[in-house]
Amino acid sequence: MKNLYKLLFVISVLVTGCSRSDVDLVFKQTPDERMSEQQQQFNQMLIQAQYGWKITNSTLLKGNFGFYMDFDFDGKKDRVCMVSDINDTSSTVVQVSAYRVKLVNAPILSFETYNYIHLLSDPNPGVSGGVVGQGFKGDNEFEFVRVTPDSMFLAGRKFRTEMILVKATKQEQEAYLNGGYLANIKAVKAVFASNKVSVFDYGGVTYQIIPNTGARRVGIMSVVNNEIKLSSGNFSYSVNGMELSDRVQIGNTFITKILLEDNKLFVQTKSGEKIEVRSSQTALLPLNQMIGLSYMGLNLPFLANLPGTNPAGTTILKQLSLLVLAYPNSYDKSEINLVWDVPNKKIIMEGLLFKGNSIYATRFRYDYDFNPTTGLYKLSNKIVLAPGYATYNVSLLDTFLQNNEFALDYYFDSGNMYGKITSKNGSTVMTFMLY
Protein backbone atom coordinates (compact mmCIF):
# COMPACT_ATOMS: atom_id res chain seq x y z
CA MET A 1 0.00 0.00 0.00
CA LYS A 2 2.89 2.37 0.84
CA ASN A 3 4.37 1.70 -2.60
CA LEU A 4 1.02 2.63 -4.17
CA TYR A 5 0.93 5.96 -2.31
CA LYS A 6 4.49 6.67 -3.46
CA LEU A 7 3.55 5.94 -7.07
CA LEU A 8 0.51 8.24 -6.93
CA PHE A 9 2.65 10.99 -5.39
CA VAL A 10 5.24 10.73 -8.17
CA ILE A 11 2.52 10.87 -10.87
CA SER A 12 0.94 13.93 -9.28
CA VAL A 13 4.29 15.73 -9.17
CA LEU A 14 4.98 14.92 -12.81
CA VAL A 15 1.56 16.10 -13.92
CA THR A 16 1.55 19.35 -11.94
CA GLY A 17 5.11 20.06 -12.88
CA CYS A 18 4.50 20.10 -16.61
CA SER A 19 4.69 23.46 -18.34
CA ARG A 20 2.62 24.42 -21.40
CA SER A 21 5.56 23.50 -23.66
CA ASP A 22 5.67 20.01 -22.15
CA VAL A 23 2.05 19.23 -23.18
CA ASP A 24 1.31 17.80 -26.62
CA LEU A 25 -1.74 19.87 -27.66
CA VAL A 26 -4.24 18.05 -29.83
CA PHE A 27 -5.32 21.34 -31.51
CA LYS A 28 -1.85 22.98 -31.40
CA GLN A 29 -3.43 25.76 -29.27
CA THR A 30 -4.89 26.08 -25.80
CA PRO A 31 -8.69 26.52 -25.52
CA ASP A 32 -8.15 30.19 -24.58
CA GLU A 33 -6.03 30.73 -27.67
CA ARG A 34 -8.61 29.08 -29.91
CA MET A 35 -11.42 31.19 -28.43
CA SER A 36 -9.38 34.36 -28.82
CA GLU A 37 -8.71 33.50 -32.45
CA GLN A 38 -12.44 32.94 -33.05
CA GLN A 39 -13.17 36.28 -31.42
CA GLN A 40 -10.80 38.03 -33.82
CA GLN A 41 -12.14 36.12 -36.81
CA PHE A 42 -15.77 37.02 -36.14
CA ASN A 43 -14.90 40.64 -35.52
CA GLN A 44 -13.05 40.73 -38.84
CA MET A 45 -16.03 39.17 -40.61
CA LEU A 46 -18.29 41.92 -39.30
CA ILE A 47 -15.89 44.61 -40.45
CA GLN A 48 -14.99 43.17 -43.84
CA ALA A 49 -18.47 43.42 -45.34
CA GLN A 50 -17.54 46.29 -47.65
CA TYR A 51 -21.03 47.77 -47.89
CA GLY A 52 -22.39 46.60 -44.53
CA TRP A 53 -25.12 44.12 -43.71
CA LYS A 54 -28.84 43.68 -44.36
CA ILE A 55 -30.24 42.15 -41.18
CA THR A 56 -33.37 40.31 -40.08
CA ASN A 57 -33.76 40.25 -36.31
CA SER A 58 -36.54 38.24 -34.66
CA THR A 59 -38.41 38.83 -31.40
CA LEU A 60 -40.59 36.48 -29.38
CA LEU A 61 -43.59 38.80 -29.10
CA LYS A 62 -43.80 40.78 -32.35
CA GLY A 63 -42.35 39.03 -35.33
CA ASN A 64 -39.26 40.24 -37.16
CA PHE A 65 -37.59 43.61 -37.62
CA GLY A 66 -35.27 44.74 -40.39
CA PHE A 67 -31.94 46.52 -39.88
CA TYR A 68 -29.01 47.78 -41.88
CA MET A 69 -25.66 47.86 -40.02
CA ASP A 70 -22.12 48.78 -40.95
CA PHE A 71 -19.46 47.88 -38.37
CA ASP A 72 -16.47 50.21 -37.95
CA PHE A 73 -18.24 52.44 -40.45
CA ASP A 74 -16.09 55.22 -41.91
CA GLY A 75 -13.07 54.01 -39.95
CA LYS A 76 -14.69 54.49 -36.54
CA LYS A 77 -13.38 51.54 -34.53
CA ASP A 78 -15.85 49.67 -32.31
CA ARG A 79 -18.73 51.76 -33.66
CA VAL A 80 -21.68 50.53 -35.69
CA CYS A 81 -24.06 52.67 -37.71
CA MET A 82 -27.60 51.43 -38.24
CA VAL A 83 -31.13 52.10 -39.42
CA SER A 84 -34.20 49.93 -38.75
CA ASP A 85 -37.81 49.47 -39.86
CA ILE A 86 -39.12 49.83 -36.27
CA ASN A 87 -40.65 53.25 -37.04
CA ASP A 88 -40.34 56.17 -39.45
CA THR A 89 -37.55 57.81 -37.44
CA SER A 90 -35.43 54.66 -37.15
CA SER A 91 -35.88 54.05 -40.89
CA THR A 92 -34.37 57.41 -41.82
CA VAL A 93 -32.11 58.62 -38.99
CA VAL A 94 -28.73 56.88 -39.05
CA GLN A 95 -27.67 56.01 -35.51
CA VAL A 96 -24.10 55.34 -34.37
CA SER A 97 -23.40 53.37 -31.19
CA ALA A 98 -20.73 51.21 -29.58
CA TYR A 99 -20.42 47.48 -30.11
CA ARG A 100 -17.98 44.84 -28.96
CA VAL A 101 -17.16 41.22 -29.82
CA LYS A 102 -16.37 39.60 -26.47
CA LEU A 103 -15.84 36.12 -25.10
CA VAL A 104 -18.42 34.51 -22.81
CA ASN A 105 -17.88 30.79 -23.38
CA ALA A 106 -18.18 31.70 -27.07
CA PRO A 107 -17.73 34.85 -29.17
CA ILE A 108 -20.58 37.29 -28.43
CA LEU A 109 -21.71 40.34 -30.39
CA SER A 110 -22.75 42.88 -27.77
CA PHE A 111 -24.35 46.27 -28.43
CA GLU A 112 -22.78 48.36 -25.69
CA THR A 113 -24.76 51.60 -25.85
CA TYR A 114 -28.51 52.15 -26.25
CA ASN A 115 -29.59 51.98 -29.87
CA TYR A 116 -32.41 50.75 -32.14
CA ILE A 117 -31.74 47.14 -31.12
CA HIS A 118 -32.58 48.04 -27.53
CA LEU A 119 -35.97 49.44 -28.55
CA LEU A 120 -37.12 45.85 -29.06
CA SER A 121 -36.52 45.01 -25.39
CA ASP A 122 -37.34 48.37 -23.80
CA PRO A 123 -39.46 47.64 -20.69
CA ASN A 124 -41.45 50.87 -21.06
CA PRO A 125 -44.52 50.30 -23.31
CA GLY A 126 -44.50 53.99 -24.16
CA VAL A 127 -41.23 53.60 -26.08
CA SER A 128 -42.15 50.98 -28.70
CA GLY A 129 -45.47 49.55 -27.56
CA GLY A 130 -44.03 46.40 -25.98
CA VAL A 131 -45.05 44.58 -22.81
CA VAL A 132 -44.27 46.16 -19.44
CA GLY A 133 -40.89 44.92 -18.21
CA GLN A 134 -40.22 42.86 -21.36
CA GLY A 135 -40.71 44.92 -24.50
CA PHE A 136 -41.06 42.55 -27.45
CA LYS A 137 -38.63 40.05 -25.87
CA GLY A 138 -35.74 40.94 -28.14
CA ASP A 139 -32.07 40.25 -27.46
CA ASN A 140 -29.18 42.71 -27.14
CA GLU A 141 -26.34 40.17 -27.16
CA PHE A 142 -25.87 37.45 -29.76
CA GLU A 143 -23.77 34.31 -30.03
CA PHE A 144 -22.13 33.46 -33.34
CA VAL A 145 -23.63 30.24 -34.73
CA ARG A 146 -22.37 29.78 -38.29
CA VAL A 147 -21.27 31.60 -41.42
CA THR A 148 -21.56 31.21 -45.19
CA PRO A 149 -19.70 33.19 -47.86
CA ASP A 150 -22.25 36.01 -47.80
CA SER A 151 -24.15 35.51 -44.53
CA MET A 152 -23.75 35.19 -40.76
CA PHE A 153 -26.20 33.53 -38.36
CA LEU A 154 -26.42 34.56 -34.71
CA ALA A 155 -28.61 33.53 -31.76
CA GLY A 156 -29.72 35.76 -28.89
CA ARG A 157 -28.23 34.88 -25.52
CA LYS A 158 -31.39 35.42 -23.45
CA PHE A 159 -34.38 34.57 -25.64
CA ARG A 160 -32.55 32.63 -28.40
CA THR A 161 -33.94 34.96 -31.04
CA GLU A 162 -32.39 34.80 -34.49
CA MET A 163 -30.28 37.43 -36.21
CA ILE A 164 -29.40 36.84 -39.87
CA LEU A 165 -26.85 39.11 -41.56
CA VAL A 166 -26.53 39.19 -45.36
CA LYS A 167 -23.91 41.29 -47.15
CA ALA A 168 -25.37 44.41 -48.75
CA THR A 169 -24.48 45.79 -52.16
CA LYS A 170 -23.23 49.32 -52.75
CA GLN A 171 -26.61 50.31 -54.18
CA GLU A 172 -28.42 48.91 -51.15
CA GLN A 173 -26.05 50.68 -48.75
CA GLU A 174 -26.72 54.02 -50.44
CA ALA A 175 -30.48 53.44 -50.23
CA TYR A 176 -30.37 52.53 -46.53
CA LEU A 177 -28.24 55.55 -45.60
CA ASN A 178 -30.03 58.13 -47.74
CA GLY A 179 -33.76 57.74 -46.98
CA GLY A 180 -34.49 54.88 -49.36
CA TYR A 181 -35.56 52.55 -46.55
CA LEU A 182 -38.64 54.50 -45.46
CA ALA A 183 -39.51 55.27 -49.08
CA ASN A 184 -39.53 51.53 -49.86
CA ILE A 185 -41.66 50.68 -46.82
CA LYS A 186 -44.24 53.28 -47.77
CA ALA A 187 -44.21 52.11 -51.40
CA VAL A 188 -44.84 48.47 -50.41
CA LYS A 189 -47.74 49.47 -48.17
CA ALA A 190 -49.14 51.70 -50.92
CA VAL A 191 -49.25 48.82 -53.43
CA PHE A 192 -51.02 46.56 -50.95
CA ALA A 193 -53.46 49.37 -50.17
CA SER A 194 -54.27 50.05 -53.84
CA ASN A 195 -54.67 46.33 -54.57
CA LYS A 196 -57.28 45.81 -51.83
CA VAL A 197 -56.83 42.05 -52.26
CA SER A 198 -53.42 40.91 -53.54
CA VAL A 199 -53.27 37.60 -55.41
CA PHE A 200 -50.88 35.70 -57.66
CA ASP A 201 -51.03 32.52 -59.74
CA TYR A 202 -48.58 29.65 -59.44
CA GLY A 203 -48.83 26.07 -60.68
CA GLY A 204 -52.43 26.53 -61.78
CA VAL A 205 -53.51 27.75 -58.33
CA THR A 206 -54.51 31.26 -57.27
CA TYR A 207 -53.00 32.41 -53.97
CA GLN A 208 -54.09 35.34 -51.81
CA ILE A 209 -51.52 37.36 -49.83
CA ILE A 210 -52.71 38.35 -46.36
CA PRO A 211 -50.34 40.92 -44.81
CA ASN A 212 -50.64 41.84 -41.14
CA THR A 213 -48.30 44.76 -40.63
CA GLY A 214 -49.30 45.17 -36.98
CA ALA A 215 -48.18 41.65 -36.06
CA ARG A 216 -45.43 41.65 -38.72
CA ARG A 217 -46.73 38.46 -40.29
CA VAL A 218 -47.83 37.57 -43.79
CA GLY A 219 -50.04 34.68 -44.85
CA ILE A 220 -50.53 32.99 -48.23
CA MET A 221 -53.92 31.33 -48.73
CA SER A 222 -55.31 29.06 -51.44
CA VAL A 223 -58.41 26.96 -52.01
CA VAL A 224 -57.77 23.67 -53.82
CA ASN A 225 -60.55 21.07 -54.26
CA ASN A 226 -62.61 22.93 -51.61
CA GLU A 227 -59.72 22.59 -49.15
CA ILE A 228 -58.44 25.80 -47.56
CA LYS A 229 -54.68 26.02 -47.16
CA LEU A 230 -53.00 28.82 -45.23
CA SER A 231 -49.27 29.16 -44.64
CA SER A 232 -47.87 32.13 -42.74
CA GLY A 233 -44.63 33.49 -41.32
CA ASN A 234 -42.94 36.57 -39.92
CA PHE A 235 -41.59 39.31 -42.16
CA SER A 236 -39.36 42.37 -41.98
CA TYR A 237 -38.76 45.17 -44.47
CA SER A 238 -35.63 45.70 -46.55
CA VAL A 239 -34.88 48.34 -49.21
CA ASN A 240 -35.99 45.74 -51.76
CA GLY A 241 -39.35 44.82 -50.27
CA MET A 242 -40.16 42.26 -47.56
CA GLU A 243 -38.00 39.44 -46.21
CA LEU A 244 -39.78 36.28 -45.03
CA SER A 245 -37.41 34.51 -42.67
CA ASP A 246 -40.01 31.85 -41.93
CA ARG A 247 -40.48 30.38 -45.37
CA VAL A 248 -44.12 30.42 -46.42
CA GLN A 249 -45.13 27.39 -48.46
CA ILE A 250 -46.95 27.37 -51.80
CA GLY A 251 -47.31 23.99 -53.46
CA ASN A 252 -43.97 22.20 -53.21
CA THR A 253 -41.85 25.32 -52.78
CA PHE A 254 -41.49 28.30 -50.44
CA ILE A 255 -41.83 32.08 -50.67
CA THR A 256 -38.75 33.80 -49.23
CA LYS A 257 -39.32 37.42 -50.33
CA ILE A 258 -41.92 39.85 -51.58
CA LEU A 259 -40.05 42.24 -53.87
CA LEU A 260 -40.92 45.75 -55.00
CA GLU A 261 -39.89 46.55 -58.57
CA ASP A 262 -41.19 49.52 -60.58
CA ASN A 263 -44.10 49.96 -58.14
CA LYS A 264 -45.15 46.35 -58.63
CA LEU A 265 -44.93 43.48 -56.16
CA PHE A 266 -43.46 40.08 -56.95
CA VAL A 267 -43.25 37.00 -54.74
CA GLN A 268 -39.91 35.20 -54.99
CA THR A 269 -39.57 31.48 -54.41
CA LYS A 270 -36.69 29.63 -52.78
CA SER A 271 -35.22 28.91 -56.23
CA GLY A 272 -35.32 32.60 -57.18
CA GLU A 273 -38.38 32.45 -59.45
CA LYS A 274 -40.42 35.68 -59.41
CA ILE A 275 -44.21 35.82 -59.84
CA GLU A 276 -46.07 39.09 -60.29
CA VAL A 277 -48.75 40.02 -57.75
CA ARG A 278 -52.02 41.35 -59.15
CA SER A 279 -55.04 43.10 -57.69
CA SER A 280 -58.45 41.60 -56.98
CA GLN A 281 -61.58 43.22 -55.59
CA THR A 282 -62.76 40.12 -53.73
CA ALA A 283 -61.15 37.65 -51.35
CA LEU A 284 -60.92 33.99 -52.32
CA LEU A 285 -63.49 33.05 -49.67
CA PRO A 286 -65.88 35.06 -47.46
CA LEU A 287 -64.79 35.37 -43.84
CA ASN A 288 -67.71 33.32 -42.51
CA GLN A 289 -66.21 30.31 -44.34
CA MET A 290 -62.70 31.02 -43.02
CA ILE A 291 -63.44 31.75 -39.39
CA GLY A 292 -62.78 28.85 -37.03
CA LEU A 293 -60.83 27.06 -39.76
CA SER A 294 -58.02 29.16 -41.20
CA TYR A 295 -58.54 31.76 -38.47
CA MET A 296 -59.26 30.89 -34.85
CA GLY A 297 -61.22 34.10 -34.42
CA LEU A 298 -60.97 37.82 -33.76
CA ASN A 299 -58.54 39.67 -31.50
CA LEU A 300 -58.46 43.20 -30.13
CA PRO A 301 -55.07 44.28 -28.70
CA PHE A 302 -54.75 46.71 -25.81
CA LEU A 303 -55.85 50.28 -26.64
CA ALA A 304 -56.33 49.37 -30.30
CA ASN A 305 -58.83 51.50 -32.20
CA LEU A 306 -58.70 49.74 -35.54
CA PRO A 307 -59.85 51.35 -38.80
CA GLY A 308 -63.48 50.67 -39.63
CA THR A 309 -64.79 50.75 -36.06
CA ASN A 310 -67.54 53.37 -35.64
CA PRO A 311 -68.21 55.42 -32.46
CA ALA A 312 -70.77 52.94 -31.11
CA GLY A 313 -68.29 50.11 -31.59
CA THR A 314 -65.49 52.11 -29.98
CA THR A 315 -67.60 52.64 -26.85
CA ILE A 316 -68.12 48.89 -26.52
CA LEU A 317 -64.53 47.83 -27.22
CA LYS A 318 -62.73 50.41 -25.08
CA GLN A 319 -64.58 49.41 -21.89
CA LEU A 320 -62.00 46.83 -20.80
CA SER A 321 -58.96 48.98 -21.57
CA LEU A 322 -60.45 51.76 -19.42
CA LEU A 323 -60.20 49.39 -16.44
CA VAL A 324 -56.46 48.98 -17.05
CA LEU A 325 -55.98 52.72 -17.39
CA ALA A 326 -57.87 53.29 -14.14
CA TYR A 327 -55.73 50.75 -12.25
CA PRO A 328 -52.25 50.88 -13.84
CA ASN A 329 -50.64 49.32 -10.76
CA SER A 330 -52.92 46.31 -10.97
CA TYR A 331 -52.81 45.53 -14.70
CA ASP A 332 -50.34 46.03 -17.54
CA LYS A 333 -52.70 45.58 -20.49
CA SER A 334 -55.91 43.93 -21.66
CA GLU A 335 -57.06 41.96 -24.69
CA ILE A 336 -60.35 40.74 -26.14
CA ASN A 337 -60.81 37.55 -28.16
CA LEU A 338 -63.79 36.06 -29.94
CA VAL A 339 -63.03 32.40 -30.66
CA TRP A 340 -65.11 30.33 -33.09
CA ASP A 341 -65.76 26.65 -32.31
CA VAL A 342 -67.33 25.74 -35.65
CA PRO A 343 -67.88 21.97 -35.14
CA ASN A 344 -69.92 22.64 -32.00
CA LYS A 345 -71.40 25.95 -33.24
CA LYS A 346 -70.16 27.95 -30.27
CA ILE A 347 -68.37 31.26 -29.81
CA ILE A 348 -66.19 32.01 -26.76
CA MET A 349 -65.66 35.61 -25.72
CA GLU A 350 -62.50 36.24 -23.66
CA GLY A 351 -61.66 39.35 -21.68
CA LEU A 352 -58.02 39.00 -20.64
CA LEU A 353 -56.12 41.10 -18.11
CA PHE A 354 -52.32 40.88 -17.89
CA LYS A 355 -49.97 41.60 -15.01
CA GLY A 356 -46.35 40.52 -15.50
CA ASN A 357 -46.47 36.83 -16.42
CA SER A 358 -49.99 36.37 -15.02
CA ILE A 359 -53.18 36.32 -17.12
CA TYR A 360 -56.61 36.82 -15.54
CA ALA A 361 -59.33 35.51 -17.83
CA THR A 362 -63.05 36.14 -18.08
CA ARG A 363 -64.71 33.69 -20.49
CA PHE A 364 -68.30 33.46 -21.70
CA ARG A 365 -69.52 30.80 -24.14
CA TYR A 366 -72.49 31.21 -26.46
CA ASP A 367 -74.30 28.92 -28.88
CA TYR A 368 -74.70 30.41 -32.33
CA ASP A 369 -76.89 29.97 -35.38
CA PHE A 370 -75.68 31.15 -38.77
CA ASN A 371 -78.10 31.94 -41.58
CA PRO A 372 -76.25 31.43 -44.90
CA THR A 373 -78.96 33.34 -46.78
CA THR A 374 -78.76 36.54 -44.74
CA GLY A 375 -75.16 36.02 -43.59
CA LEU A 376 -76.16 36.82 -40.00
CA TYR A 377 -75.09 35.24 -36.70
CA LYS A 378 -77.46 34.98 -33.72
CA LEU A 379 -76.11 34.00 -30.27
CA SER A 380 -77.95 32.37 -27.37
CA ASN A 381 -77.53 30.24 -24.22
CA LYS A 382 -74.70 32.13 -22.54
CA ILE A 383 -72.56 30.11 -20.08
CA VAL A 384 -69.94 31.67 -17.79
CA LEU A 385 -66.80 29.54 -18.09
CA ALA A 386 -64.61 31.83 -15.98
CA PRO A 387 -65.92 34.93 -14.16
CA GLY A 388 -62.53 36.64 -13.71
CA TYR A 389 -61.85 40.29 -12.96
CA ALA A 390 -63.05 41.57 -16.33
CA THR A 391 -66.69 40.47 -15.94
CA TYR A 392 -68.16 43.94 -15.47
CA ASN A 393 -65.85 45.52 -18.02
CA VAL A 394 -66.93 43.37 -20.94
CA SER A 395 -70.61 43.87 -20.14
CA LEU A 396 -71.23 46.12 -23.15
CA LEU A 397 -69.77 43.56 -25.54
CA ASP A 398 -71.66 40.76 -23.78
CA THR A 399 -74.94 42.70 -24.12
CA PHE A 400 -74.30 43.37 -27.79
CA LEU A 401 -73.57 39.72 -28.56
CA GLN A 402 -76.70 38.48 -26.81
CA ASN A 403 -79.09 41.06 -28.23
CA ASN A 404 -77.98 41.62 -31.81
CA GLU A 405 -77.81 39.63 -34.98
CA PHE A 406 -74.62 40.54 -36.76
CA ALA A 407 -72.68 39.99 -39.98
CA LEU A 408 -69.00 39.01 -40.17
CA ASP A 409 -66.98 40.43 -43.05
CA TYR A 410 -63.48 41.45 -44.06
CA TYR A 411 -62.39 45.04 -43.71
CA PHE A 412 -59.53 46.26 -45.90
CA ASP A 413 -57.42 49.28 -45.03
CA SER A 414 -53.93 50.32 -46.19
CA GLY A 415 -53.19 46.83 -47.43
CA ASN A 416 -54.22 45.17 -44.17
CA MET A 417 -57.14 42.79 -43.78
CA TYR A 418 -59.25 42.79 -40.61
CA GLY A 419 -62.38 41.07 -39.37
CA LYS A 420 -65.46 43.30 -39.01
CA ILE A 421 -68.64 42.72 -37.02
CA THR A 422 -71.67 44.79 -38.09
CA SER A 423 -75.02 44.77 -36.32
CA LYS A 424 -78.07 43.90 -38.43
CA ASN A 425 -79.28 47.50 -38.43
CA GLY A 426 -75.79 48.82 -39.20
CA SER A 427 -75.61 51.05 -36.11
CA THR A 428 -72.62 49.25 -34.54
CA VAL A 429 -69.41 48.33 -36.34
CA MET A 430 -66.40 46.73 -34.57
CA THR A 431 -63.14 45.84 -36.28
CA PHE A 432 -60.70 43.22 -34.98
CA MET A 433 -57.41 41.60 -35.88
CA LEU A 434 -57.75 38.15 -37.48
CA TYR A 435 -55.70 35.41 -35.83
From TrEMBL:
This is DUF4302 domain-containing protein. It comes from Chitinophaga fulva. It holds the Pfam family DUF4302.
